[in-house]
Amino acid sequence: MHRSPIRKHWLAKTLTGQVLGLALGFACGGLLLRLLDEVPLPVRAQLAMWLVAPVWLGVAGGVYLFRNAWRALVCLGSANALAWLWLAWLSRRVLA
Q1: Which domain does 51 fall in, by range?
Q2: What is the count of structural domains for the chain?
Q3: Where are the transmembrane segments (predicted)?
Q4: Please, are residues 76 and 21 in contact by the beta-carbon 8 Å criterion?
Q5: How far apart are CA 56 and CA 29, in angstroms?
């Protein structure tokens, strides 16, 4: 019986999706907290907390659609950088 080889980018894609997906989920949760100022804090906190898991799982599942691990790393790294920079900008604007 012929065994199919494991794809060479699967481990790198998996690690990229897990690590950067979680970071992106946290950034999206923080953005939701900052953007929904009118909503009471307990509700905002719950929404932000429950937003992390779907974003993380969506990225972890969607990372395999990239052609290779390098593209996944660049795209998800860029998305993370933009999300965290936007969150920092919003936080700085709110605190000032």
Answers
A1: 10-95
A2: 1
A3: 12-35, 47-66, 73-91
A4: yes
A5: 11
pTM as predicted: 0.88
User: Looking at this protein, which amino acid is placed at residue 63?
Assistant: V
Let me know if residue 5 belongs to a domain.
no
Q: In a 10 Å sphere around its CB, with 0-12 CB exposed, 13-18 middle and 19+ buried, how is residue 15 labelled?
A: middle
Which are the contacts of 59, defined by CB distance < 8 A and separation ≥ 6? 17, 20, 21, 24, 25, 76
CB 30 within 8 A of CB 85: no
**Residue 63, in any domain of the structure:** yes
* pLDDT grade for 33, boundaries at 50, 70 and 90: very high
pLDDT value for 52? 97
Residue with tokens 């906190």: 45
| Domain assignment of residue 85, yes or no | yes
